[in-house]
Amino acid sequence: MHERAPLLQIANLVVKYGHIQALHGVSLDVQPGEAVAILGANGAGKSTIVRAVSGWVKPAAGRILYAGEEITTLPSWDRAARGMALVPEGGHVFRDMTVEENLRLGAYLESDPRTVRERMEYVYTLFPVLKERRRQIARTMSGGEQQMLAIGRAVMRNPQLLVVDEVSMGLAPVLVDTVFEALRQLKEEGVSMLIVEQNAHETLNVVDRGYVLENGRIVLEGMADDLREDPRVQAAYLGG
Amino acid sequence: MSLWNILLDTLTQGSIYFLIAVGLTMVYGILKILHIAHAAVYTIGAGVGLAVFKLTGSFWLALIAAMLVSGLVGVIIYRGVYFYMLDQPRIVPLITSVGLFLLIEDLLQKPYLMGPYQHAFPAQEVFPSITLPWGTIPNAQVMILTLTGVALVALYLIFTRTRLGLAWQAAAQDREMAGSVGINLNRAIALNFLLGSALAGAAGVLVGVFYNSVYATMGDVPSYKAFVVIVLGGMGSVTGTLAASFLLAFAETVLLASVGYVLPRDAIAFLVLIFVLMFRPQGLLGR
Question: Which of 3.90.550, 1.10.3470, 1.10.287, 1.10.10 would CATH assign to domain B3-279?
C-alpha cells in the first residue's frame, strides 16, 4: 500500500523501569502525513512510548525507526534535528523564561531569524493568547496556557512529526477544544502526528488511525471511525 | 577599620568567592551535582599558573595556561566520570566528587608536583596600585577587581547574548526538554564545565598572587566555602551567586573587623550558612 517507508515505525518495543516492565513488545507505525492516536487508561504505558520515541528513556529491547533509519539509541537532540518535535506530558515549558523565549527555544535549530519570526507569527495565529502574554514568565501562566505554549514551542520546530502526550489532561473543556482545534489545523497542513491521550472522544475526531494500549500491550487497532464504533472502546473510553 | 578598607576587602574577597563559586553554580544548575572536586581544579590552576610564570616570567601567559588546563581538567572530570552517573541518585556523583577532590589534592602533594610546601607567586608588580581620593587600591587588588570585572561582563554577554547561554539556561530549567528542542546537551554541558573550570583556574592564579602563596591544599577551605556561597545564592542561580559572594564577603569583613578576635573568617562564613539554612532552607535568594 505505502511506497514510502513509514515516518515512524516502532517494532517490538520493550521498556523497563527497574524491575517493572512498562511495555511488553509494542509495534506501531505512523505514515507520512498521518495522525495516529494511542488511547488507553492511566498507567497503560502510553507515556512510556512517548518517552522512548523522544529518547528520554532507553528501551530494553525493540527498535524505533524514523523515515526508515534506526533512531533507537539516538540522543533526543538528534531526533529533533531529524524533524521531530515533542509536546510532553505537563508541557515542560522553560519555567523561568518568557513566552517569547520559550518559542525561540522551540526554533533552536533554525538559524534564520526571519523564519523564526514568521513561525512565531504563525503560532500567535494558532493561539492569540500567547501573543498577549509574550512577555510573561511561563511559570506564572495557567496550566492551559502552558500547554498552548508547549504546542507553540513544538510548532516553532516546523516538525515533520509532532509527538503529543496527554495534552488535554487537567484542562477546562473550552481549552480542550482550542487545543484540539490547533492540532486539527496542523494536521491539515501536513504535519504527521502521534497523539497519546486519555480523551478518546476529542482525539478520534482529529486522527486517522488509532491503537488501544492496555497494560503495556496493544490490544486493538483500527481506523478512527471504526474505533469510535467499537463497543470495547465505547465502554472503556467514550463513557458509552 | 575604615569604611574604605571594608569596601575594598568586601570587593576583593567577594570577587574571589564569585570566580570560584560560579563554576559550581553552573554545574549544579544543569546537572544537580555538588561538584566538590571543583576546588581541586582551582588548585591545579594555581599550580599551572605558577609553573608557567616561573618558566616564562609572564603573568598573562600563566593566567591563560592556568585557565586552559583547568578548563580541560573540568571537561575530563565531566566526560570521564560524572557522565556515567547522570541517571544515578545525586549522592553517587557527590561521593565520587569528594573522592576525586582528595585524590587530586593528595597527588598534588607529591614532591614531583607541588610537594608539602608553600610556593611564592611574585607577580604582584604586573599591576599598578591606584590611588583615589578616598584611599589606595594595592596592585594585587587592582588585578583581582579588574579581572573579575572582565569575567563578569564576559559571563553576562555569554548568558544573555549567545545561543550557548540560552542553551545553558534552558538545560538548567529542564534538561530533558532542552534536549528535545535540539540542544546538544553533551556539548553544552562540556562547555559549561570548560568555562566554569577555567574561571576556577583563574581564581587559583589570582589568589596565589594575592597571598603570594600557592600550595597543594589551598583548595581545602574553598571546597566547602564555595558551597556557602551557592547555597546562600539559591543553588544554581548565577546572579544569586554573585549577590551571595559579595554579601558573604561583606558579612565576613564587617564581623571580622568588630568581633574578629573571637571569630575567625571561616567560622563567620559557616555561622552565616547555618543561620540562613535554619530559617531560609531555600537560600537567601532562592525561591
Answer: 1.10.3470
